[in-house]
């Protein structure tokens, strides 16, 4: 039977050297042996002590990082004593702040788990013990401690470190993430495999109070509670459930969900548990599993249940907590006790942390610095976006607000993303008609379906990537019943630095294969307004508007490139509804402005048929092609469903080359166009050459959107060279491709 060790004097392994630990750890930094470190000169000691003096403004970081410098892998941490861990945590926190200040990224969540990360790696034996970080946006300190410190300047950049955990990246990342609420299932699977193979390693899921609002977490707990495979779940409770928490919605400004209220009640009604009380509690469980049941029953009888903490117990977990997640004494002691606890019962450790902890601007921020751009560490000032136009997100929100002002049946629904979807703006105006359901995309979809059955107009605003979670609900609850739910899919296409977990590249394929649905993709912000107006009117079937991450083009560009202007009579934000399933011609191929270099023969005519925001690239490509004598028509399809069949068939009849463009994967718009052309026999004679330009069949890694579209082969010059090849000008195509390729930032490649 394992012995429980209580109190801060416990040190892992044989290195319990009270009173000498500081010296030993500091010695590491200077490459000294343990005994040499103990004898190091006074001057050296002073140099290291100064490392902890505060810096400028908000920069309270150390001037040097002796503890961190000594850690190449978590094994090196085992040399430290518990009393040294706060110093390591201090260095780790500032290392994280400084790294993210240079790259941007998810800062607040990482700052909240610095101590927890240190404690986990100190107590457990990774990588043999598996730590599964839920969402994994909080894993930067984990990356730094697990051999990736030197690569932090490449975080979220092209060729660099992922912003999430990733199996390919490190053996310390046993499970990749990005989408939430998966960690308990994954850890339970690992625990089950461990038991099958007779191993003894630990499997730990770290899940936030936001991520645990996702239904899958309960499916996993329900399973774990009835399963005899010990899994350890750490509930990281920081009160920040949605992004951001505190926006106005039908439930006021509280965090989304009753569960958050429940765990908050636990936190406020119980003092933090210290190591001693946890050990006492766990000791009561021995010697057998029977005793566990008895102890639990005992607590039940004494009314502890009513005080909270037992929802998890009811699900079959042993609940430990709440624990102060910034107190390394408690954390390490509790984790050691749980680690050594006998039996197979799953354990849930409830840890209270503060998002943004230790960096004043983050602690003060409304969103606790969830996601930040580059910033100045001393002033906390983030680099401002230089975009002169509004984001598509804001355009959508403003349009919806205008419609909702005159149509009281309009309702906005988001899944823990009020900020990212723009519905926080809608909630400000119409709180009672705005719903943040927590990270519960499946519920969001069916909740919207229910509203639609009663004649309401639900706008279900979910990022393209996250709607993947609610797909069966889309098919079974909405589309099959032909309910007019309006799906607003933001971040469609390649999304940049969040990388492959967040790309919205599949929705055209997964929504496009469904009958009875209207699918639209705007090419610019005026079109987005028009499509929102169209969606308001589509009341006999579901509809989709999908648009990219980023900003609108601006009215001047729209007028100059597409020849369209805001309609005089139209309200600034509202747009005007479009005829369903009708595209628009942006420019018609001339018979060739300039003579073809091949001589008298007229150049073949090219049609660029675009769905969504590649339209600008199509127009720029057409300009470049016409410069070299290739006549090009450009068409904005507007709708993927229904297709504008007449327009597409006419293009096929009057052009020699037809290229489709979209910000989506195989199986989307191009596939639908090809299906139409083949069924109509337009490819039978071999006269028409067709090329669907889609996002290729690979997962494109993190980087800027431009770099990603470069890799995808969907930037303007790719269109030009594809067209040149198809009109028989192969050599020019190769030359053009070489001269125009956009260089990816080599410096960021680790
Ligand atoms: C399925 C899914 N929906 C939405 C998101 C977007 N998202 C990322 S982090 C986050 C909040 C997570 O809260 P919590 O788990 O408490 O972590 P914290 O950031 O507060 O540490 C959300 C909604 C996601 N990653 N996955």
TrEMBL record:
Pathway field: Metabolic intermediate biosynthesis; 1-deoxy-D-xylulose 5-phosphate biosynthesis; 1-deoxy-D-xylulose 5-phosphate from D-glyceraldehyde 3-phosphate and pyruvate: step 1/1
E.C. number: 2.2.1.7
Cofactor(s) the protein requires to work: thiamine diphosphate; Mg(2+)
GO BP terms: isopentenyl diphosphate biosynthetic process, methylerythritol 4-phosphate pathway; terpenoid biosynthetic process; thiamine biosynthetic process
Cross-referenced Pfam families: DXP_synthase_N, Transket_pyr, Transketolase_C
Gene Ontology terms, MF aspect: 1-deoxy-D-xylulose-5-phosphate synthase activity; metal ion binding
Keyword set, alphabetical order: Isoprene biosynthesis, Magnesium, Metal-binding, Potassium, Thiamine biosynthesis, Thiamine pyrophosphate, Transferase
Residue ranges constituting the Transketolase-like pyrimidine-binding domain according to the UniProt record: 390-555
Enzyme class (EC, first level): transferase
Record carries keyword Magnesium: yes
Keyword Magnesium: yes
Subunit structure: Homodimer.
Family statement: Belongs to the transketolase family. DXPS subfamily.
Record-linked NCBIfam families: dxs (TIGR00204), PRK05444.2-2 (NF003933)
UniProt protein name: 1-deoxy-D-xylulose-5-phosphate synthase
């Amino acid at each position: 039977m394992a012995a429980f060790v209580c109190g801060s004097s416990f040190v892992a392994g044989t290195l319990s050297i009270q009173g000498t630990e500081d010296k030993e750890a500091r010695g590491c930094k200077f490459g000294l042996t343990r005994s040499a470190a103990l004898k190091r000169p006074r001057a050296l000691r002073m140099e290291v002590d100064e490392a902890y003096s505060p810096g400028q403004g908000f920069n309270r970081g150390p001037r040097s990082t002796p503890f961190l410098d000594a850690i190449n892998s978590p094994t090196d941490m085992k040399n430290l004593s518990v009393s040294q861990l706060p110093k390591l945590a201090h260095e780790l926190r500032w290392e994280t702040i400084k790294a993210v200040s240079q790259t941007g990224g998810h800062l607040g969540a990482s700052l909240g788990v610095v101590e927890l990360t240190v404690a986990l790696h100190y107590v457990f034996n990774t990588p043999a013990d598996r730590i599964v970080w839920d969402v994994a946006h909080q894993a930067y300190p984990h990356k730094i401690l697990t051999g990736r410190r030197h690569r932090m300047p490449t975080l979220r950049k092209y060729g660099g470190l992922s912003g999430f955990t990733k199996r390919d990246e490190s053996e310390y990342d046993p499970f990749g993430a990005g989408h939430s609420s998966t960690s308990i299932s994954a850890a339970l699977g690992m625990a089950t495999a461990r038991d099958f193979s007779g191993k003894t390693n630990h499997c730990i899921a770290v899940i936030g109070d936001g991520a645990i609002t996702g239904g899958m977490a309960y499916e996993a707990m329900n399973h774990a509670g009835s399963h005899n495979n010990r899994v350890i779940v750490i509930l990281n409770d920081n009160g920040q459930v949605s992004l951001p928490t505190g926006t106005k919605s039908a439930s006021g400004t509280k965090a989304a969900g009753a569960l958050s209220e429940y765990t908050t009640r636990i936190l406020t009604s119980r003092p933090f548990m210290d190591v001693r009380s946890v050990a006492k509690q766990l000791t009561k469980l021995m010697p057998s599993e029977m005793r566990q049941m008895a102890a639990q029953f005992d607590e039940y009888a004494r009314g502890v249940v009513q005080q909270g903490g037992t929802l998890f117990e009811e699900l079959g977990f042993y609940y430990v907590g709440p624990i102060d997640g910034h107190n390394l004494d408690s954390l390490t002691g509790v984790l050691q006790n749980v680690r050594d606890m006998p039996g197979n019962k799953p354990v849930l450790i409830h840890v209270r942390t503060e998002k943004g902890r230790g960096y004043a601007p983050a602690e003060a921020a409304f969103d606790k610095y969830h996601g930040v751009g580059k910033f100045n560490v001393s002033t906390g000032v983030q680099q401002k976006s230089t975009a002169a136009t509004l984001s598509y997100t804001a355009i959508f929100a403003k349009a919806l607000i205008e419609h909702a002002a005159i149509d009281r049946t309009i309702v906005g629904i988001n899944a823990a993303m009020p900020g990212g979807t723009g519905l926080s703006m809608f909630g400000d105006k119409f709180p009672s008609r705005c719903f943040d359901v927590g990270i519960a995309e499946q519920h969001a979809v069916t909740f919207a379906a229910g509203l639609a059955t009663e004649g309401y107009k639900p706008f279900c605003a979910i990022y393209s990537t996250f709607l993947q979670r609610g797909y069966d609900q889309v098919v079974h609850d909405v589309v099959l019943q032909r309910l007019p739910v309006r799906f607003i899919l933001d971040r469609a296409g390649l999304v940049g630095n969040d990388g492959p977990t967040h790309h919205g590249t599949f929705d055209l394929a997964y929504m496009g294969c469904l009958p009875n649905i209207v699918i639209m993709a705007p090419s610019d912000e005026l079109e987005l307004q028009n499509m929102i107006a169209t969606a308001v009117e589509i009341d006999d079937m579901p509809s989709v508007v999908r648009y990219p991450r980023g900003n609108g083009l601006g009215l001047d560009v729209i007028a100059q490139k597409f020849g369209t202007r805001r309609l005089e009579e139209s309200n600034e934000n509202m747009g005007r509804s479009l005829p369903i399933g009708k595209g628009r011609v942006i420019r018609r191929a001339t018979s060739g402005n300039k003579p073809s270099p091949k001589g008298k023969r007229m150049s073949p005519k090219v049609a660029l048929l675009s769905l969504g925001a590649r339209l600008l690239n199509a127009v720029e490509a057409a300009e470049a092609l016409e410069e070299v004598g290739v006549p090009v028509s450009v068409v904005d399809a507007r709708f993927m469903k229904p297709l504008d069949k007449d327009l597409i068939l006419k293009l096929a009849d009057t052009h020699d080359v037809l290229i489709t463009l979209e910000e989506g994967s195989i199986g989307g718009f191009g596939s639908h166009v090809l299906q139409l052309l083949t069924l109509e026999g337009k490819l039978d004679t071999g006269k028409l050459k067709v090329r669907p330009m889609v996002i290729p069949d690979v997962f494109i890694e993190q980087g800027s959107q431009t770099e990603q579209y470069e890799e995808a082969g969907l930037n303007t010059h790719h269109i030009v060279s594809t067209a040149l090849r198809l009109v028989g000008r192969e050599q020019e195509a190769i030359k053009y491709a070489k001269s125009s390729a956009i260089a990816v930032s080599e410096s960021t490649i680790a």
